[in-house]
Design brief:
Elements: H1 9-36, H2 46-95, H3 107-132, H4 146-155, H5 165-170, H6 175-182, H7 187-204, H8 210-235, H9 240-277, H10 285-295, H11 301-322, H12 335-349
Helix pairs in contact: 1-9, 1-11, 2-3, 2-8, 2-9, 2-11, 2-12, 3-7, 3-12, 6-7, 7-8, 9-10, 9-11
């Protein structure tokens, strides 16, 4: 997630520079055919093109709104994970004790149980974020988009790209649990299952009475719910029929745009020529330069066509980059950093040791 107030203009231009060059080419070719080769019929009336542009603006706006909704829902889900994790830790710390135990255990043993449950929860957070970072075919991942890859290499690094999930989780659970969890598919779900089984064992030992066991079990249900909501966003993309048509309509408008703008600039040039002909001086160098520019005023349509094409395409690209909030882009929910923040917070609540440091931000990017 980018943390400054605005993206630097230089960075935005660098991110879109390849398309800017393409738009320049697409805007120049019609002008060459129109002005140099004399194909004056090669233009489109602005009215139907304006109607098309209005329709494209609506569908781009619709996609961007839907993409923002997906991003904001993901942020709310992980805000819920933050709050539920703190509640879980407090409940573990206060509910698991010797009040109803058939055989009392020492304070050190109680602390080890608290530590075990909290560390297993950190393992669940880790497994979940790794699952949410897995590539999907519809995502604009850096491996398939050159501009995104360059931006990511120059500005930040997602630790899921460099550390294997086995290494990230191994230190939080026992070897037996590690083998059990990694023998199955959904590691995050399996960890919650192990957590539930452990609560049952503690209840049987009398370390948790019935009501407290029910409350702790309800917290696990809440974690399952939050995990399912995250997986829903991750595994169900913005509908491909809308995304495909949106992409096609934007490019149709971009390709036709120069043909609609040329005639307008040609008319401006004709008006300038008419004014020059009514001028008293017809022999000065300045007058000849002005007349030459007026005869070829249609070339000024190139920068304006490029600018309009860049605006529409960039808005479409922003929606495309925003629709998948867990893939690890600069506009996504910073689940890696949030997971580390949760870990530090809940381990401090149980007076744990060897607590890791927060992840460092790189070039105003937090992941």
């Amino acid at each position: 997630m980018y943390t400054r107030r605005i993206f630097p203009i230089k960075g935005v231009i660098k991110w879109t520079r390849r398309h800017i060059f393409l738009f320049l080419i697409l805007s120049t070719i019609p002008v060459i055919l129109f002005d140099l080769l004399g194909l004056k019929w090669l233009h489109l009336p602005w009215l139907p093109l304006g109607v098309l542009g209005t329709a494209v603006a609506f569908i781009v706006s619709f996609k961007n709104n839907a993409s923002y909704d997906r991003l904001w829902e993901a942020r709310k889900i992980w805000g819920g994970i933050v709050n539920a994790s703190r509640s879980w830790t407090i409940m573990v710390k206060d509910f698991i004790n010797n009040d109803h135990a058939a055989t009392r255990i020492s304070d050190d043993e109680l602390h080890n149980i608290h530590k075990e449950l909290v560390h297993r929860h950190v393992a669940w957070l880790t497994a979940l974020r790794y699952q949410l970072r897995v590539d999907k075919p519809w995502e604009m991942h850096v491996k398939s988009k050159k501009s995104n890859r360059e931006f990511r290499e120059n500005h930040y690094l997602v630790c899921e790209d460099t550390i294997m999930i086995e290494d990230a989780i191994h230190g939080y659970i026992s070897e037996e649990e590690f083998k059990e969890v990694f023998a199955k598919g959904n590691r995050a779900s399996q960890l919650l299952g192990v957590q539930s089984r452990r609560l049952k064992e503690l209840k049987q030992q009398g370390l948790i009475e019935d009501f407290r066991h029910m409350e702790l079990s309800n917290m696990l249900v809440e974690f399952y719910t939050l995990q399912g909501k995250s997986e829903r966003i991750k595994n169900f993309p913005y509908p491909r029929q809308f995304a495909t048509l949106n992409y096609m309509f934007v490019w149709i408008f971009i390709i036709l745009l120069p043909f609609g703008i040329m005639e307008g600039f040609e008319d401006i040039g004709a008006h300038i020529i008419a004014d020059l002909e009514n001028h008293e001086s017809h022999t000065t160098t300045l007058h000849r330069i002005q007349e030459f520019i007026a005869h070829h005023f249609v070339w000024f349509s190139i920068p304006f066509s490029t600018l309009l094409a860049w605006v529409f395409h960039t808005m479409e690209a922003i929606g495309e980059n925003t629709e998948n909030p867990f893939e690890g882009g600069p506009n996504d929910v910073p689940i890696t950093n949030m997971s580390r923040g949760i870990e530090i917070d809940i381990r401090q609540l149980i007076d744990d040791t060897d607590i890791p440091e927060p992840y460092e931000w790189k070039n105003d990017i937090v992941m």
